Design the sequence.
């Protein structure tokens, strides 16, 4: 029953809280309007109508409050499969239920309403997370390029404060797996299959750290981030084409001193440190980059 599920969820977060681990939010849903879920499924998820979601959010909030957890833990919702589904679900959550919600979570498996989601999150005063995205593994740069393009599009138009990949490590099995790293979970002595997509993701995560501010860029294939404390500028450039690309990026607002360049590509480059291949002329950075690659300048 709904009450039994809520009781279980509260017991879980309460146990972790007693162990010194406090979750900031509890989301009782996963892709609730996808209509994919059924009995004896092999994947996480459960379908709910909007009226039931309203009831559950209020009951979860009240239960957190009665256990003295509401000050530390609030409700997030609803981890829908697409941007459009998340926007639709937010639109049907009533004000009473929203009073318990501090964060909207969306997955990135489709839809176009990134801007609408950003706007409603800002209007409602809620944090916005892109809490799940993933791509089938590949032996070349294709998954890495897809991943990078997704990050670029989401950070530019959805503007979440967190962006999370679904399966960083996954068990290798016949058919499709989604891991940035493939592993045999039944045999710890086997080697890890570290894919190019792992290094492509590392181009972002190693250099754009918590607290960095995402700033606008004049180039649609470049994500720019700035650390005001350490005065560090990071540019992640993605060349999705099958030919070399010339980058021209305006950095005239910054006093560029020392910088390092790293690249991941099909040419056996895995976050490879490159020689100084950028040229700064009159406040513009210029680079001729090889095809199908992800590049970082810091």
Sequence:
């Amino acid at each position: 029953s709904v009450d039994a599920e809520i009781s279980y969820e509260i017991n879980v977060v309460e146990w972790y809280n007693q162990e010194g681990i406090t979750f900031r939010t509890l989301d009782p849903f996963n892709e609730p309007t996808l209509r994919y879920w059924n009995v004896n499924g092999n994947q996480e998820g459960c379908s709910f109508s909007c009226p039931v979601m309203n009831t559950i959010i209020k009951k979860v909030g009240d239960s957190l409050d009665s256990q003295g957890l509401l000050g530390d833990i609030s409700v997030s919702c609803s981890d829908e499969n697409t941007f459009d589904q998340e926007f639709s679900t937010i639109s049907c959550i009533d004000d009473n239920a929203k009073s318990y919600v501090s964060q909207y979570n969306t997955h990135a498996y489709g839809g176009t309403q990134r801007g609408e989601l950003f706007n409603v999150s800002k209007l409602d005063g809620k944090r916005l997370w892109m809490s799940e995205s993933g791509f089938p593994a590949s032996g070349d740069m294709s998954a890495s390029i897809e991943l990078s393009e997704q990050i670029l599009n989401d950070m530019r138009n959805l503007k979440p404060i967190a962006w999370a990949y679904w399966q960083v490590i996954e068990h290798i099995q016949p058919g499709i797996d989604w891991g940035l790293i493939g592993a045999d979970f039944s045999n710890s002595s086997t080697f890890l299959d570290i894919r190019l997509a792992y290094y492509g993701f590392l181009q972002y995560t190693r250099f754009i750290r918590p607290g960095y501010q995402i700033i606008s860029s004049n180039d649609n294939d470049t994500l720019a981030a700035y650390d005001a404390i350490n005065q560090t500028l990071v540019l992640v450039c993605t060349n999705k084409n099958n030919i070399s690309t010339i980058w021209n990026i305006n950095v005239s607002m910054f006093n560029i001193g020392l910088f390092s360049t790293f690249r991941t590509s099909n040419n056996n480059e895995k976050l490879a440190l490159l020689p100084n291949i950028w040229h700064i002329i009159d406040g513009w950075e210029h680079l001729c980059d090889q095809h199908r690659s992800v590049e970082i300048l810091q």
